[in-house]
Amino acid sequence: MSSNKKYWKSVEELENGSIVEALRNNEFVEAIPTDEFLGNNDAMSSSSTSRRDFLKYVGFSTAAATLVACEGPVHKSIPYVLQPEQIIPGVADYYATSVFDGFDFANLLVKTREGRPIKVDNNTISGAKFTANARVHASILSLYDNMRLKEPKIEGKSATWAAVDTKIKASLADAKAKGGQVVLLTNTLASPSTEKLIGEFIASNPTAKHVVYDAVSSSEALDAFETVYGERALVDYDFSKASLIVSVGADFLGDWQGGGYDTSYAQGRIPKNGKMSRHFQLEANMTLSGAAADKRLPMSVANQKQALVHIYNIVTGSSVAVSLDAKFKSEVTKAGQQLKAAGSKGVLVSGIQDKNAQLLVLAINQVLASEAFVTSGTRQIRKGSNEKVAQLLKDMNAGSVHTLIMSGVNPVYTLADSASFVGGLKKVQTSVAFSIKEDETALVSTVAAAVPHYLESWGDLSLTKGTYSLTQPVIRPLFDTKQFQDVLMSLNGLTGTFYDYVKANSASFISGSTWNSVLHDGVFVGASSALSGSADYAAAAAELAKSKASSDFELVLYTKTGMGDGQQANNPWLQEFPDPITRVSWDNYVTVSNEDAKKLGLSNEIVANGGLDGSYATIAMAGGVKLESVPVIVQPGQAVGTIGLALGYGRKAALKEEMQVGVNAYSLYKGFNDVQSVTLVKADGVHEFACVQGQKTLMGRGDIIKETSLEIFNTKDAKIWNKVPMVSLNHQEVEATTVDLWDSFDRSVGHHFNLSIDLNACTGCGACVIACHAENNVPVVGKSEVRRSRDMHWLRIDRYYSSESTFEGDNERKENIAGLSSSLSTFNEMEKAGDNPQVSFQPVMCQHCNHAPCETVCPVAATSHGRQGQNQMAYNRCVGTRYCANNCPYKVRRFNWFLYNKNSEFDYHMNDDLGRMVLNPDVNVRSRGVMEKCSMCIQMTQATILKAKREGRAIVDGEFQTACSNACSTGAMVFGDVNDTESQVAKLAADDRMYHLLEHVGTKPNVIYHVKVRNT
Fold first, then answer.
1. One-letter-per-residue 3-state SS of 771-784
2. So what's the pLDDT on residue 17?
3. What is the DSSP letter of 351?
4. Sign of the four-CA dihedral 212, 217, 223, 225
């Protein structure tokens, strides 16, 4: 039988039951300080609902106190009223397309979600040879740039396209009546259909002409090729066929003649059957190509010209007198002799902006019969003529140009003689600028015609002779824009759209295929024949040998890996992208050798907060042109007597304030010559850099970057050149890989993912960094936060310099240390990079350790290990203790100091609705107060597994990808399932060159590296 007795917990409850009852019902005896994150008193006082009632309603308990560490926005989903049949929510669609903006080009697959393009990938179909660089990967964000030109304007006021059409037609009619000159000024088009349209326009307008203008000129190389072969094009080199590469001032792993050579180059750099290519680099600035070279000679461009003539003498047997600096003669002679011995397996390239130099390049490769020198499929991506642009300037200032129609160019910004162009533009009756932005040129033109992004456009491209690719829109135009070609069709009196025109015109280029097939594949490969020709090479050599060195500094202008020619200056992904060499973001700067910096009193210093500070300098050249307050980077490997400065910065128009950084180096690009004679003087002030890598050398820490020579690799046991670290166990030295602090699980069942990184193939290009940004919604934090070491990149590419001339020299110096005092002084000296150091790049992301030290210290189990080898993050669990970051030996975890999404303090793409359209819905946007890091793209691996399961088949090798491995054009990054013993990554894991980063720590990572081999 039940009891009706009543029990009390205390005498107080018995004596004063009402108060105790109230306390018992009050879960929070002291009020939780919710004002800070749930609103202010004024806002809450107008509501009849108390904070306590609100907390009860949403199910909060004491966990409300941690809300500040994991606040997240709440959005309502709005379903389709009528769902399009071709769109399946949650499933990505891919469309093949190609891009060429006058500077960058690639064959792409565009990933869309529910009609939104959110990422670009490389098109891997046979024939699609051009891969996306960092800028092309970032171009997806430029589609959603809120500062795009959204409608056409006439005289700065909004207008209709009908009014624009009427205005242009009236101007053309007036020009025809008065005999006034009509000029179409465009970038290189590489579009057969557009060039045909322009031909028809010129035919119907007798006074019209077409001038091609490339902001960064390759005119001398084009002139030389046209002189020899009768065609205005560039050689398309295939470095995979070369056993010896000699580069004289050509950064072919960068933007030299358009770039895109890294894929073929890397194929020859991975040692196979004991062989790999050898690479000599002669250059002034430290470049990606110089960093990858086996032998690098820092020399001025004046010396490079003499060296080129000297190599020409050796290869061809000529005897042109040269005045090469004696300190370089031995090494240049060696390069020339080895090149001649290599014969058809050798190749020489040069970036010297001199027609005579480029003629010698053609002569040397012809004598070698170089297999890497390809004249059958010439590059069509540079057609500009310096001579014709100079003539246009004269005509404009003479008042003889009536109508100027511009497309894809921004001469007010990119021309060195910008003032002359602006003055001439005032004498032009009607000027039309077709532009995606209201840029510097559009602002001073009569008509600013808004054009769509390439992802909103139709078009065709012939990037190399014999190939044909299509550009197709993957989203409807976001704004009131119209393609230049559609307007041109209207001016030509044609009906229909440019799509109709391209489709009709394509038949003559895709013989044996169909429109739908080419549209699906994105590219068609036809046939092209090799060219032959000759010129007076001896006269060119004699003329080039007359070159004299400047008494002042040689300024060598270049384009940075991130910014290029400056078209995407308003792209925050590219602004925050650290330069592979200097590791500096949000700036351009003058690079100076250590020797010259000491003479001029220029310096860099790492300050207390870890930021990098530097001097300012003033650059002046003849004619009164001057750049003041240019930040200085003391650059190891910079040739003495030379300085470097990147183009593409210093823009103001159509840019958010945060992106208006740097100085405009185009003002020094006089005569389209990338080498200028200048003076350099220290200026007042200190510049604050956003540099993400303070250390300058490895200081002999060989277990981070492992290197060896090809000779040792071929003749010694792997235990010699790939040493396994030793640790102490029971007072005995044993290999670190044989000792475990934890019990291991059986991971042989199911998938187990590994990521392999080959240091031989990695060129430091950074495409993987931007691809990771796009795939994983990585936020941009801005210059001041990067300076505080708060960058959010999930993937970084560490750059290391040697202190001696080689990393092996560093190791020997370290091993010869004797005693404590010697140790302190030696290591202090080794913090300074050599004057011509060896360079190594190493991509580092979360290593996904099987014995992860981060997992054992997380108090809320926010980070844990998955069955498939990934170290997983549950962001909603994380309370931001940062214990995991403190315990990570690889320093790959990032802490959200702020809410970067919808925050006016971080006015980048996540701060406006248009910019957020690029976000990947498969990856959440992290909130303030949580840790984040590389997830090994778990959303991509799970999508692959689900797709195969849905299709009822096994997953084939190569299907598993991460954003970085997918973007890597050199094959340096390979991702896959090591439990599939036939997979490429399983074979790489078993290779003798394989090692783990910081192996002695015993974390058992799932990211593996391969020893770098140099052919020295």
1. HHHHHHCCCCCCHH
2. 57
3. -
4. negative
Q: Note whether 145 and 975 are within 8 A (CB).
A: no
Q: What is the DSSP letter of 259?
A: -
Q: Are 989 and 981 in contact (CB under 8 A)?
A: no
* 594 vs 600: CA distance, rounded Å: 10
The low-confidence residues of the chain, meaning pLDDT below 50, are: 1-3, 27-30, 32-34, 36-49, 51-73, 75-76
Tokens of residue 541, six digits: 């050599």
Tell me the β-bridge partners of 314: none
At residue 45, the pLDDT reads 45
Residue 196 CB burial class (10 angstroms; 0-12, 13-18, ≥19): middle
CA distance 299 to 280: 13
Which residue is associated with the tokens 């084939």?
A: 956
pLDDT at 675: 94
Give the three-state DSSP class for 395.
Answer: helix
Place of tokens 């002569």: 363
Name the amino acid, one letter, at 231: E
Assigned token pair, 240: 């995979």
Contact, 878 vs 913, CB < 8 A? no
- Sequence-distant (6+) residues with CB within 8 A of 591 are 285, 286, 582, 633, 634, 635, 638, 643, 644, 645
Backbone angles phi, psi at 95, to 5 degrees: -130, 135
Helices (H), 589-709: 594-600
């195969």: which residue's tokens? Answer: 948
At 53, give phi and psi (nearest 5°): -60, -40
Alpha-carbon torsion 514, 517, 522, 527, what sign? Answer: negative
Say which DSSP state 69 is in.
Answer: G
Give the CA-trace dihedral at 774, 775, 780, 783, to 10 degrees. Answer: -70
Cβ contact 590:632 at 8 Å: yes
- State the SS3 of 560-571: CCCCCCCCCCCC
Q: What is the pLDDT of residue 18?
A: 60
Distance CA 445, CA 439 (A): 10
Record the pTM: 0.90
Q: Which residue has the tokens 């006015």?
A: 907
Residue 9: the pLDDT is 53
**Predicted local distance difference test score (pLDDT) of residue 662:** 93
